[in-house]
Amino acid sequence: ASPACTELEVVMLDWLGQMLGLPDEFLARSGGEAGGVIQGTASEATLVALLGAKARVMQWVKEQHPEWSDTDILSKLVGYCNKQAHSSVERAGLLGGVQLRSLKPDNKRRLRGETLREAIEEDIRKGLIPFYVVATLGTTSSCAFDDLDEIGDVCKSHENVWLHVDAAYAGSAFICPEYRYLMKGIEKADSFNFNPHKWMLVNFDCSALWLKQPRWIVDAFNVDPLYLKHDQQGSAPDYRHWQIPLGRRFRALKLWFVLRLHGVEYLQEYIRKHIALAHLYEKLCTSDDRFELYEEVTMGLVCFRLKGSNNLNKELLRRINGRGKIHLVPSEIDDIYFLRLAICSRYTEES
Hints:
Elements: H1 3-20, E1 35-39, H2 42-64, H3 70-74, E2 77-82, H4 87-96, E3 99-103, H5 113-125, E4 129-136, H6 148-156, E5 162-166, E6 191-194, H7 196-199, E7 207-211, H8 215-221, H9 252-286, E8 291-293, E9 301-306, H10 310-323, E10 329-333, E11 336-342
Parallel strand pairs: 2-3, 2-4, 4-5, 5-6
Antiparallel strand pairs: 1-7, 6-7, 8-9, 9-11, 10-11
Helix pairs in contact: 1-9, 2-4, 2-8, 5-6
């Protein structure tokens, strides 16, 4: 119910959206219904978008088939993501009570449009109703980027398939214009999310979600008892209906402080420095013939391993983390175990 809290959040999410080069149709300044909201985490944003997608498709199907019950429709709904998508996408499906399919990525671990098209067409033939797709920009394991442009075209060619973009970690890099090629096709999405608390010097929790049509989420979440009604309803976004909890903190304030304190140019330099350090580490790995890179380096993440068995790499990780100087998190794709050096501390230097 705090107007200051709401007003600052509307403005901050527009500032942030402009910094990333998001299309105007995601921003409140477009004058339509669109806008941004701060969620706690990316997993919350994925669930909120899924519930909006579900509300939208349910209404559409009921118009086509008034005789179908909610249970009939729910059992037919199906969503899609890259097999490399974060586990929170699968969890959103469980919480939303719908089935989600993990699709096989290409050899660069990207989900491609053709794979999605085939899956959707196969499910339609089975009598299922595709309604939700999550495209990941910067997967957790190896920072791979789904082909958003191709995926967007497939979603547009099927009625009422909601496209949500999860750029939790890598999204911060889009404040640098030279990395925006990785979000080509963003205008085809229905919602977009990234975490300023991961790589933009904002403290946890601050996950930015933009929605073109928040009305579907508002409709899905809106219960308006008398004690929550007020005279100004409809004059500003009612953010309690844009999220799962009704109560919320003044999270826009910390975003305002970071943007005012550092400014866009400093934040861009900060991101560029981390990516440059990752490329330096990449060179160190490739110049030592004991090591190999597992994945191309695009952001501040280097996936590398010792040439040899998985057990050898597990032992290396055990020793590195055991010393307590730095902490690495491993991953495993296609039965290959590798180490991940993520540069995300303000204090990391070349030395």
